[in-house]
Amino acid sequence: MNNTIRTVSRRLAASSVVALLGVYCAMSRAADASAQPAMPPAMAAPAGMYQIDKAHASLQLRVSHMGFSTYTTRFSRFDATLTFDPSNIPASRLVATVDAASLEMDAAPKMCVDIVQGPQFLDTKKFPTIVFRSEKIRMTGAKSFEISGTLDLHGITRPLVLTGTYNGGYAGIANMDPHARIGFSAHGTFKRSDFGMGYGVPAPGTTMGVGDSIDVSIEVEFSGPPLATAGGKSHS
Fold it and tell me: Which spans in 36-162 are helix H?
């Protein structure tokens, strides 16, 4: 009988210790969480001139490879400037430039790289720069839009329409990101044969070759005017 009582007592004591430790850990986590500084409220992004933040931007291309896979590649060097007013997005103006020789082809044979950079495709020595210029922006929703412009590629200029979304922004955060920041997602497609690059396009009714349709996906953030201080001055 005494042994039973002692066993029960030890189990109760152990359970109490575990429960107390659990309460202590929970209180500690709550204290740590409350000790973390909250993100300060941010004001809306102002109108002005914005420059691409290359650390938070990507330009990807997707194309059918013989119908077996959708090959995905990217340009690694590009720049863009944007005149932007969040209260009047259709008035925005964008100019983007891409270094044609910066097309990344991970693990591709040198022969394939030479073909893509040579006269049959991009011809990067003759046409080193790809340029997109916006001409008109039409809102299709509260933050969604179509941006119509021209694409200069391989020495040919043709219209291109991108669908996009304004993902939001802020005027800046003191001591963290003291410039305005805005972000967008965009998507579009074009035919490479329209730009004089018809080499390897599959014959009608087949998929043997490299697809004509190029799918473009863009994720980008822009940095803009410096954050104004309470006294009206701006951070540098």
Answer: 110-117
Which residues, at least 6 apart from 25, have a Cβ–Cβ distance to it below 8 Å? none
* Residue 140: φ, ψ to 5°: -115, 0
Q: How far apart are CA 48 and CA 60, in angstroms?
A: 27
Residue 87 to residue 100: CA distance in whole angstroms:
34
Given phi > 0 = left and psi -120 to 50 = alpha, else beta, which region is 48?
left
How many CB atoms are located within 10 Å of the residue 143 CB?
Answer: 14
Q: Whole-angstrom Cα distance, residue 122 to residue 119? A: 6
Residue type, 76: S
Q: Is the pTM of this model over 0.85?
A: no
Size of the chain, expressed as the number of residues it contains = 236
Distance of CA 195 to the CA centre of its chain: 26
* Segment (H or E) for 4: helix 2-35
> Per-residue pLDDT tens for 91-129?
999 999 999 999 999 999 999 999 999 999 999 999 999
Residues sharing a CB contact under 8 Å with residue 219, sequence separation 6 or more, in sequence order: 56, 57, 58, 183, 184, 185
3-state secondary structure of 121: coil
Which residues 6+ apart lie within 8 Å of 16 measured at CB?
Answer: none
